[in-house]
Amino acid sequence: METGSRSKKWNFEGNEWLNASAVSVRGVFNKLKENINNEDKRPAIYMCRVDPTENPLFQTPLIASDAIASAVQSYNFNSYPPTLGLPDATRAIADYLSSDLPYQLSPDNVFLTIGGTQAIDIILPVLARPGANILLPRPGYPQYESRANCCHLEVRHFDLLPDRGWEVDLDSLEAKADENTVAMVLINPSNPCGNVFTHQHLKRVAEAARKLGMFLISDEVYAHIAFGSNPFVPMAVFSSIVPVITIGSLSKRWFVPGWRFGWITTCDPNGILKQTGILKLIKNYLEITTDPPTIIQAAVPEILKRTKEEFYAENLNIMREGANIFYDRCKEIPCLKCPHKPEGAMSVMVQINISQLEGIIDDVDFCVKLAKEESVLLLPGVSVGLQNWLRISFAVKRSALEDGLTRIKAFSLRHAKMS
Fold it and tell me: In what residue span(s) does the Aminotransferase class I/classII large domain sit (predicted)?
């Protein structure tokens, strides 16, 4: 029996494309956790992922929890939802987003998703016709590249410029585009860089995209989490220049990443996405994918309408304080350079001067050895497209932030080259 099994030729094998698509923050986090020294009695400090629920200062507003409870207790939302979402939910999101725009969005412009990740997983396959390519920022969010690889959509990277506040390198953008470039992605406020793009720069990006014949995917999962000098400006403000598809989510502004609720919004007053068939393909894709839970859809109108401005303002103050602490303390670590003080989102990019360190070969090596020696987890920059950089979350509780920076400094001094 064994001999027969060994000689049998099977008709299946794994999809090798998934190996090239497996890079994720979660995957890197899990690998780094394996390197923590179990004999270290100090608590591990996770500054490599952005989960604001780990900070006790960030509390989901009671209105959100009450809205969920009311939806459950009503027994009216135990059914499958409509494919395009509960009408009250799509209308509430359209109204919420329109408050920042010079025009009114229709509920027909809004499509509900299981978080921002599913929004990416819907949009990119819709674009993946043979030969097409998409422009992604470097550094950026790895889910875009992973999903593009899965659906055989060619990826090209344009640069963000650290010495100019992580603005888009418009020359790099134009150099990478051709007649098969279908879209570009912009993340604002930026994960992983922590910058907030100005109104003037966003307009220049929109004009460049129009010139190149592509539309914009604006990842605004961190919308309104802007605590520096630049206010948040939605890319849809410029949708009369170029079609915009916006990705949004409850996760970060309301501190509920585990609720997995997001949306896709088509911002296109000139009707170009409809004319080119993109709108229809998004609707078709929704027919074959999973819907967000009906009870969360039912709760969304209350959450959006009744969350108080004081809640948002208090949390921006907490984030501003964390960003200030990080930026000031990072200056004390000789081998690290933070080129731009974070002014939005919940993470920041920091460059490592490898030449100043003994026995550290690159950013991955830095993070692995830091986990082993100090029980601090940082995300190596190569995971988001920049080698010998780090992505660091400053959204952790203040004591963990300060302790983590103290440990990183001790690690860096211990590995410093003797002059």
Answer: 65-408
First to last CA, the chain: 68
Give 55-79 pLDDT, tens digit per residue. Answer: 999 999 999 999 999 999 999 999 9
201 φ/ψ angles, rounded to the nearest 5 degrees = -70, -40
pLDDT tens digit sequence for 376-397: 999 999 999 999 999 999 999 9
Q: What are the extents of the domains in the chain? A: 22-58+310-415, 62-306
Give me the count of residues in the chain. Answer: 419
DSSP-assigned beta bridge partners for residue 344: 226
Give residue-wise pLDDT tens across range 220-260.
999 999 999 999 999 999 999 999 999 999 999 999 999 99
CA 193 to chain centroid, in Å, comes to 10
Contact of 388 with 365, CB cutoff 8 Å = no
Token couple for 196: 């907030």
Provide CB contacts within 8 A for 76, sequence distance 6+: 298
Q: Give dist(CA 205, CA 210) in Å, integer.
A: 9
Does residue 181 sit in helix, strand or coil?
A: strand
Distance (Å, rounded) from C-alpha 204 to C-alpha 189? 17
Q: Find tokens 């304080």 and name the residue.
A: 321
Superfamily per CATH, domain 22-58+310-415 = Aspartate Aminotransferase, domain 1 (3.90.1150.10)
CB atoms within 10 A of CB 206: 23
Measure the CA–CA gap between 369 and 377, rounded to whole angstroms. 10
Nearest to 343 by CA among 188, 229, 254: 229
**Strands, DSSP E only, in 142-257?**
154-161, 167-168, 181-187, 215-219, 244-249
Q: Is the distance from CB of 57 to CB of 397 less than 8 angstroms?
A: yes
Residue bearing tokens 């986090």: 29
Element (H, E) at 191: none
pTM exceeds 0.85 for this model = yes
Helix axis angle, 309-330 relative to 398-414, nearest 10°? 20
CATH architecture entry for 62-306? 3-Layer(aba) Sandwich (3.40)
